[in-house]
Structure to design on (232 residues):
């Protein structure tokens, strides 16, 4: 098993659909993240979870709804998305936020999302 | 707010030669971490090297080394003996030491092509 696994790898959906992205980490980490990667823009941090509690929400529209049922799994629920939401969505994990910053984040392969 | 600037959108280097990627950042923090991440085409983003700002010694990892100039807020990555597998997007990133909540601030990236 790779460290951080994301499914699906590709997703095409209409603006009225509801879908979910899944992330699973096998590293025993306590912190998990969602990022958005768009062409010619820096990676944008969307959400941070530490021990299943959301600790950061970077002004993300409510059409993106994260869920962290346990420290190994992270979901991103999508509904009523817009064309500008088409991007690569990356999940990452790190050991722990409580011991301070600087811990490397381990990334998944990402889900390539296309909104029709 | 912190910002990270990578002024070289694209670079190329001949196999076995040395290349340096530039990164500058802006922050009022005194203690922080700096990272270089590598994202090969259609593959996972992986950590290349990590630097702690309160350590003056430049970090090295095999063929990868950094030139960290704290006063100039510069953090360049040197790749020696370039290999075809080094072809990738390279991202410079910043994280505060305290209170970061895992928030990595990324630059826009430099696309490096290693030519045979």
């Amino acid at each position: 098993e790779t460290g951080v696994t994301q499914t699906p790898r590709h997703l095409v959906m209409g603006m009225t659909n509801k879908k979910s992205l899944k992330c699973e980490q096998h590293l025993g980490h306590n912190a998990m993240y969602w990022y958005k990667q768009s062409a010619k823009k820096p990676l944008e941090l969307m959400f941070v979870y530490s021990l299943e509690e959301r600790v950061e929400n970077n002004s993300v529209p409510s059409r993106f709804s994260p869920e962290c049922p346990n420290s190994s799994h992270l979901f991103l629920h999508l509904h009523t998305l817009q064309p500008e939401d088409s991007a690569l969505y990356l999940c990452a994990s790190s050991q722990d936020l409580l011991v301070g910053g600087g811990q490397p984040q381990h990334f998944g392969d990402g889900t390539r999302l296309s909104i029709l | 707010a912190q910002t990270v600037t990578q002024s070289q959108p694209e670079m190329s280097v001949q196999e076995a030669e040395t290349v340096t990627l530039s990164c500058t950042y802006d922050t009022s923090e005194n203690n922080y971490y700096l990272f270089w991440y590598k994202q090969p085409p259609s593959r996972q983003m992986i950590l290349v090297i990590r630097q702690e700002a309160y350590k003056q010694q430049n970090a090295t990892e095999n063929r990868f080394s950094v030139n960290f100039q704290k006063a100039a807020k510069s953090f360049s990555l040197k790749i020696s003996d370039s290999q075809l597998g080094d072809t990738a997007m390279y991202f410079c990133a910043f994280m505060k030491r305290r209170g970061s909540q895992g928030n990595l601030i990324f630059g826009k990236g430099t696309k490096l092509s290693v030519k045979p």
Summary: Chain B touches chain A through 28 residues (CB under 8 Å). The longest strand of chain B covers residues 88-96.
